[in-house]
Design a protein that fits this description.
The complex is a heterodimer of chains A (about 290) and B (about 170). Chain A is built from twelve helices and 14 strands. Helices cover about 35% and strands about 25% of the residues of chain A. In chain A, the strands form four sheets. In chain A, strands 4-5-10-6-7 form a five-stranded antiparallel sheet. A four-stranded antiparallel sheet of chain A has the order 11-12-13-14. In chain A, strands 1-3-2 form a three-stranded parallel sheet, with helices on one face. Chain A is of the alpha+beta class. Chain A has helices at about 15-25, 35-40, 80, 85-90, 90-95, 105-110, 110-120, 125-130, 150, 225-235, 245-250, 265-290, and strands at about 5-10, 30, 50-55, 65, 70-75, 135-140, 145-150, 155, 160, 165-175, 180-185, 195-205, 210-215, 225. In chain A, about 55% of the residues are buried. In chain A, a hairpin with a 6-residue loop joins strand 13 and strand 14. The longest helix of chain B is centred in the C-terminal third of the chain and has 15 residues, at about 145-155. In chain B, helix 2 (about 90-95) crosses helix 5. Chain B has helices at about 25-30, 90-95, 105-120, 125-130, 145-155, 165, and strands at about 5-10, 15-20, 50-55, 55-60, 75. In chain B, a hairpin with a 2-residue loop joins strand 1 and strand 2. Chain B has two domains: about 5-80, Roll (Ubiquitin-like (UB roll)), CATH 3.10.20; about 90-165, DNA polymerase, domain 1 (Orthogonal Bundle), CATH 1.10.150.120. Classes of the chains: A alpha+beta (about 290), B alpha+beta (about 170). Chains A and B meet through helix 2 and helix 6 of A and strand 4, helix 3 and helix 4 of B.
Chain lengths: ~290, ~170
């Protein structure tokens, strides 16, 4: 239950961090909040010769606005996002997802970037990033590139981050007036990894839905967007939304596997129910925001 | 791998040590600082028995390396006692309300509850349940722990009345 030995690096700038990652290649791993990486190291499920601790890089923390996006530095703690009142109005789905992440002790240390880069299929933030078409900012020695969430999550624990690259920020689009959001999930025990979860965003103009986003977590190796259901929602009256019917279509986009916690059929049932709840709440929030 | 020197304040006492970078904060506190209230059960962040306060926020000490806490100020359950050595408010509430049986999880609980009540001095029952969800207890069934949190909150608010009727007969 102790990690294998490693060389510890604590750079104070992004440039130094990506320099170390370039120098040590696949033998190096960035250490963010450590709430997922340290257990993996302690259980010896993984090991690295070099850990590049990002906790001393002040430039990686903070929440700002840029060109219709809320930009969250990769090392911003979950708790900081949870307690920032501006997030509840600018990116409500993110605010709704935060309390579901672990426990407050975990959120005190865990980071936005760490969670997204870890890409656990049962985690909340990858689903939120996928639902909102967030852009992930990846930095290396050769510069900065932005990757759409749809291209970022490539498989269980697999992302578009290449050797020598570092996730430095996540950019969440701010939706307009008439938008409403919801996020919900089901776990057997509060704070555990969810059996299934869903984030929903709806935007309506003149009572008709003009924009819809539905993303499931825990229902496949990567967050699953329910694109057929999203398309079917366009033009529908938000007041007469048949959430149960849309939820059934939405969950058709998923192909979950069973495990010790829940069979595939049970997951599908739970996800359908959660989607119905989230669609209803998002519609109600959108109507209130009209 | 080479050892590094770390300095930190543990319950108000300056501590210095030489550690391998892979040594967790929990192991450093237990082995080098004699803060043996820091209990290790799961060692991967699930059980909460190793919870300590790092620079004001409750954290899992098994999920941090000691080297990361260089320069930090740490409070463990030992640091929650009154200066004269008597039990602090949260510790005493656990004793009064039968918030423990075997006691293994208790240090983590009293640290978490102390941090929780600092942010929410008058929590609802639902908020208390959420607040203690990050700590596991295999003995009590949590009812005595919930009463202890209510009692500690009332004591801090200067109205310690709820406890007397709630300590018996879980």
């Amino acid at each position: 239950m102790k990690p294998a030995p490693f060389e510890y690096h604590a750079p104070e700038t992004i440039a130094d961090a990506v320099g170390l990652l370039a120098q040590h290649g696949d033998d190096a791993k960035p250490l963010a909040g450590g709430q997922s990486l340290v257990p993996l190291l302690s259980l010896r499920l993984t090991r690295f010769d070099h850990l590049v601790d990002l906790n001393k890089i002040g430039a990686l923390s903070g929440i700002s606005r840029d060109n219709g996006h809320v930009v969250i530095g990769a090392m911003t703690r979950h708790r900081a996002v949870e307690l920032d009142p501006s997030i509840a109005t600018s990116v409500p789905m993110l605010a709704a997802a935060m309390p579901w992440i672990g426990h407050f002790q975990i959120r005190n240390r865990g980071t936005i970037g760490g969670s997204i880069a870890h890409a656990d299929p049962a985690a909340e933030l990858p689903a939120v990033a996928a639902a909102l078409d967030a852009e992930l900012e990846i930095t290396s020695k050769s510069g900065v590139r932005r990757v759409a969430a749809a291209d970022f999550f490539q498989g269980t624990f697999m992302t578009a981050i290449d050797t020598g690259e570092l996730l430095t920020a996540a950019r969440f689009p701010v939706w307009g007036k008439g938008s409403g959001f919801a996020f919900t999930e089901f776990a057997r025990r509060s704070g555990d990894f969810a059996i299934a979860g869903v984030g929903v965003g709806l935007e309506a103009t003149g009572g008709k839905i003009t924009r819809a986003a539905i993303a499931f977590m825990g229902m496949g190796p990567v967050p699953v967007r329910a694109t057929d259901a999203e398309k079917a929602l366009l033009g529908v009256s938000i007041a007469s939304l048949d959430a149960a019917a849309v939820a059934r279509v939405a969950v058709g986009a998923t192909d979950p596997t069973g495990d010790v916690h829940a069979s595939a059929a049970n997951r599908t049932k739970i996800a359908t129910h959660l989607a119905e709840q989230a669609l209803t709440r998002a519609a109600s929030n959108a109507a209130a925001n009209a | 791998m080479s050892e590094v020197t770390v300095h930190m304040s543990v319950n108000g006492t300056a501590r210095r040590g030489r550690v391998e970078p892979r040594k967790t904060l929990a192991d450093f506190l237990r082995e080098d600082c004699v803060a043996t209230s820091v209990h290790l059960a799961c060692e991967h962040g699930v059980c909460g028995a190793c919870t300590v306060i790092v620079d004001g926020v409750a954290s899992r000490s098994c999920l941090m390396f000691a080297v990361q806490a260089d320069g930090a100020s740490i409070t463990t359950a030992e640091g929650l006692a009154n200066p004269d050595g008597s039990l602090g408010i949260v510790q005493d509430a656990f004793r009064q309300c039968h918030g423990l049986q075997c006691g293994f999880c208790t240090p983590g609980f009293v640290v978490s509850v102390t941090a929780f009540l600092q942010e929410n001095a008058d929590p609802s029952l639902e908020e208390i349940r959420e607040g203690i969800a990050g700590n596991l207890c295999r003995c009590t069934g949590y009812q005595g722990i919930i009463k202890a949190v209510q009692h500690a909150a009332a004591t801090m608010a200067g109205t310690p009345t709820a406890m007397t009727t709630s300590t018996e007969g879980n």
